[in-house]
Specification:
Layout lengths: L7 H9 L9 H6 L6 H15 L4 H18 L2 H17 L3 H18 L2 H17 L3 H18 L2 H17 L3 H17 L3 H17 L3 H15 L5 H17 L3 H17 L3 H17 L3 H18 L2 H18 L2 H17 L7 H37 L4 H67 L3 H29 L3 E2 H15 L5 E6 L3 H4 L2 E2 L1 H21 L4 E7 L2 E6 L15 H10 L3 E7 L2 E7 L1
Parallel strand pairs: 2-4
Antiparallel strand pairs: 1-3, 4-5, 5-7, 6-7
Helix pairs in contact: 1-7, 3-4, 3-5, 4-5, 5-6, 6-7, 7-8, 8-9, 9-10, 9-11, 10-11, 11-12, 11-13, 12-13, 13-14, 13-15, 14-15, 15-16, 15-17, 16-17, 17-18, 18-19, 19-20, 20-21, 21-24, 22-24, 24-25
C-alpha cells in the first residue's frame, strides 16, 4: 500500500495565510471579538476558525459559519467569498471533503463575478484538491489547469510550483509516470528558487512514490532520504509521518519486512499527534498486513478494522477496499474462505463505485480455494452415500446371485466417472467465463483510463481554443469538433457499460434511455418515457448485445422523429417483452422509403442481436415495436 495524497493541505495554508510554528493564542483572539466590527470582524473570525482547525475541528467549523454570517450581514461580496473560503477550509481539515467542495464552489462563483485573480486561483486550487481527495481526477486536473493559467499570467512562480506538484500527483495516479515527473521537477525547481522547504520536501516525496511504483527503488530511497533530512525537527509532523510511511512501504516492497515495521511504528505516533486521519488509516492497514504475513492474526485484525472504520468515516473508498483485501487474506490464513470471499466481493463493489474495477490475483485465489473447498465437501458427502450403498450391496452378495453384485458395482463406477466428467466440464466452463470477464474488465479499464482521459483532454483543449479564438469561422469549427468529441466520449461510455456487464436489467436499460431522452428534448419538441412493467419485469435480464441494440434503435428512432416527423412529441414506452416508440408527426409511406430514417441500420442491429421490429406509419404518426 502507499500514501495517496496530494499537497493540498499545504496549498490551503498558503492561500489562507502564512504558516507559523508558533502556538497561536486563540483565546486572546476570541476575547477581541466583542470589540471588533465590520470587515475586521470577518477576518478575525476567519483567523480563529483556521487556528482552531488543528485542535478542535467542530469549533473550527462553528467559527467559520459565524464568519460567513458576519460577511453576509455586511452584504459585501468579497467578504462573503472569504466566509465561504473559511468554511471550506474548516470542512476540509475536518475531512468533510464534500461539504468543503460545496463551500468553495460558492466562493468561486462570487470571485468569478468580481474578477479577483488571486481569489480565483485560490478557489480553483481548493476545488481541484477536493476532487483529487474524492478520486475524481479528471475534474481535479481541469481545475488545477485553470489555476495554473492564472498563476502563469500573473507570474506567481511559487503558486505555479505548488499547482504543478498537484498535477503531477494526479498523473501519477493515472500511471502516467513520465508526465508526473515532469511536473514534479518543475515544482522542485520553483520550491528551490523561492526557498520553500515544505514544497521541496513534498515534491521529493511524491517523486519518490513514482520511482517506487516503477520499481526504481534506489532512486525512491534517495528522494525519501533527502526529504526526511530536510523536514526532520521542523515541526511538520504530518509531513514527516508521510515520508516515514513511504519509506516503510518501499522497504516492504523490497522484502525488508522488519525495517518496514520500524518505519511504520515511527510514523504512527506522529500521525496520531497531527490528527492526520488519512495517514493513520493507511498506517493501520500497512501494519495489519505485515502482522498477517507474520501470522499475528489477532493483532492484525485490530489494525485492519481500525483502518476500515477510519476509511468509512473519511469516505476513503479506495483505501477501504485495500484494507478489506487485507482482512480477506487474514481469513484465508484462518481457513475461513467463505468470509474471505465475501470481503473480497465487498472490496470489489467499492472499487466499482469509482470506475476503477480490477481483477486481482487475490480474488482468483479465494475463488479457487472457496470452490475447491465446496467441491471437496460435496465429494465427501457423495462418498459417504456410496460407502453406505456398498455396505448394503455387500450384505446382498450373500443373499443374491453374484452377477447382481457385479452389475451394481459396474453401474456405480460409471456413475462416478460421469459425475467427475460433468464436474470437470463445469469447472472448465467457469474458469473460461472468469478469464473472459477479467479480459472484459481489463479492456473496459484501458478504454476508460487511456482513451477516456485523452478525449477529456481534447475536449478541454478545444474549450480553451474556443475561448481564445476571435475568428467566427474558426470558433464554429472548434465548437463542432468539441461536440463531436463529446459525442464520441458518450459512445465510449456506452461501450464500456456493455463490456462490463454480464447481463443488463430492463430497469437499467430503461434508465439509460430515459437519460438519453432528457438530452434529446428541444424547446419545441417534447420527448417522453414511460413503462408499464412490474418490479419483477423491470429486474429481468437482457444480454449486453440485446441491450445495446435496443438502446441504439431508441436513439435512432427518437432522433429521426425530432428531425423529420414535423410533429411535436415522441414517446418511448416499455411493455412486457417489447419497447414501443411513437410520434405524432406526418408519417411516411413505408413501402416507398428504401432504408430511409436509418431503417436499414435499425433492422440490421436488431437482426444481429436476434430481435424483431414492427413498423407502422400513417398521417397520424409513426409507431415502432421492438420485441425482446
Amino acid at each position: 500500500m502507499r500514501k495517496i495524497r496530494s499537497v493540498s493541505c499545504f496549498l490551503w495554508i498558503l492561500f489562507f495565510g502564512i504558516w507559523t510554528n508558533a502556538q497561536t493564542n486563540t483565546d486572546s483572539l476570541i476575547q477581541q471579538l466583542p470589540r471588533t466590527k465590520g470587515a475586521d470582524k470577518v477576518y478575525l473570525l476567519s483567523d480563529i476558525s483556521y487556528y482552531l482547525s488543528g485542535k478542535n475541528n467542530p469549533k473550527s467549523v462553528l467559527y467559520a459559519e459565524k464568519c460567513l454570517e458576519a460577511a453576509q450581514s455586511l452584504k459585501d461580496d468579497k467578504l462573503i467569498a472569504e466566509g465561504y473560503n473559511a468554511l471550506g477550509l474548516a470542512h476540509y481539515l475536518s475531512a468533510n471533503i464534500k461539504e468543503s467542495l460545496k463551500a468553495n464552489k460558492k466562493a468561486l462563483k462570487i470571485r468569478q463575478k468580481l474578477g479577483d485573480d488571486k481569489g480565483l486561483l485560490s478557489s480553483y486550487s481548493k476545488i481541484a484538491n477536493c476532487y483529487n481527495d474524492l478520486g475524481e481526477y479528471e475534474n481535479s486536473i481541469s481545475y488545477n489547469l485553470k489555476a495554473l493559467r492564472i498563476a502563469e499570467k500573473n507570474k506567481w512562480s511559487a503558486y505555479e510550483g505548488m499547482i504543478e506538484m498537484n498535477i503531477g500527483v494526479i498523473y501519477k495516479e493515472q500511471k502516467q509516470y513520465d508526465k508526473a515527473n515532469q511536473y514534479y521537477n518543475k515544482a522542485i525547481a520553483a520550491a528551490k528558487a523561492s526557498n520553500d522547504t515544505l514544497s521541496w520536501v513534498r515534491a521529493l516525496s511524491n517523486k519518490g512514490v513514482v520511482y517506487r511504483e516503477t520499481e526504481e527503488n534506489e532512486k525512491a530511497l534517495s528522494n525519501y532520504g533527502t526529504a526526511l533530512k530536510l523536514i526532520e525537527g521542523k515541526g511538520q509532523i504530518d509531513v514527516e509521518s508521510g515520508i516515514l510511511l513511504n519509506l516503510g512501504s518501499l522497504e516492504n516492497n523490497r522484502g525488508n519486512g522488519d525495517k518496514a515495521m520500524q518505519y511504520y511504528e515511527q510514523a504512527l505516533p506522529l500521525a496520531i499527534q497531527a490528527n492526520d486521519q488519512h495517514t493513520m488509516a493507511i498506517l493501520y492497514a500497512n501494519i495489519g498486513n505485515r502482522l498477517v504475513q507474520e501470522n499475528q492474526l489477532d493483532q492484525a485484525r485490530d489494525y485492519l478494522q481500525k483502518s476500515i472504520d477510519l476509511c468509512q468515516t473519511l469516505g476513503l473508498k479506495k483505501q477501504e477496499a485495500e484494507s478489506l483485501k487485507g482482512l480477506s487474506r487474514l481469513h484465508i490464513k484462518e481457513g475461513d474462505f467463505e468470509t474471505a470471499y465475501a470481503l473480497d466481493q465487498q472490496a470489489d463493489s467499492l472499487k466499482a463505485e469509482m470506475l476503477s474495477v480490477e481483477s486481482t490475483r487475490a480474488i482468483e485465489e479465494i475463488n479457487v480455494k472457496y470452490e475447491t473447498e465446496k467441491r471437496k465437501k460435496q465429494l465427501a458427502q457423495q462418498q459417504i452415500r456410496i460407502n453406505e450403498q456398498n455396505s448394503q450391496f455387500q450384505r446382498l452378495v450373500f443373499l443374491v446371485f453374484i452377477v447382481v453384485l457385479i452389475a451394481l458395482v459396474t453401474y456405480l463406477v460409471l456413475l462416478i466417472r460421469k459425475r467427475k466428467l460433468r464436474q470437470r466440464l463445469e469447472m472448465e466452463q467457469e474458469q473460461a467465463k472468469s478469464r473472459m470477464q477479467a479480459e472484459k474488465l481489463r479492456i473496459s479499464r484501458d478504454l476508460h483510463d487511456n482513451i477516456g482521459a485523452q478525449l477529456t483532454f481534447v475536449i478541454n483543449s478545444l474549450e480553451s481554443v474556443e475561448k481564445q479564438s476571435t475568428e467566427v469561422k474558426t470558433k464554429a469549427k472548434v465548437v463542432s469538433l468539441r461536440e463531436q468529441t463529446k459525442q464520441t466520449m458518450n459512445e465510449l461510455r456506452e461501450a464500456i457499460w456493455t463490456i462490463q456487464s454480464d447481463a443488463v436489467a430492463v430497469q437499467e436499460l430503461y434508465g439509460k434511455i430515459a437519460a438519453f431522452v432528457r438530452n434529446a428534448k428541444t424547446e419545441h419538441f417534447q420527448v417522453l418515457t414511460d413503462h408499464h412493467l412490474s418490479e419483477a419485469q423491470m429486474d429481468e435480464k437482457l444480454s449486453p448485445e440485446k441491450a445495446i441494440a435496443i438502446f441504439r434503435v431508441a436513439q435512432e428512432a427518437v432522433n429521426n422523429a425530432v428531425k423529420h416527423s414535423e410533429g411535436n412529441c415522441v414517446t418511448v414506452e416499455f411493455h412486457p417483452k417489447r419497447m414501443v416508440i411513437s410520434d405524432n408527426g406526418k408519417g411516411f409511406d413505408t413501402g416507398a422509403v428504401q432504408g430511409g430514417f436509418g431503417l436499414t441500420n435499425m433492422k440490421a442491429r436488431l437482426k444481429a442481436a436476434e430481435l424483431e421490429m414492427d413498423l407502422q406509419s400513417n398521417k397520424n404518426g409513426t409507431t415502432i415495436h421492438v420485441h425482446f
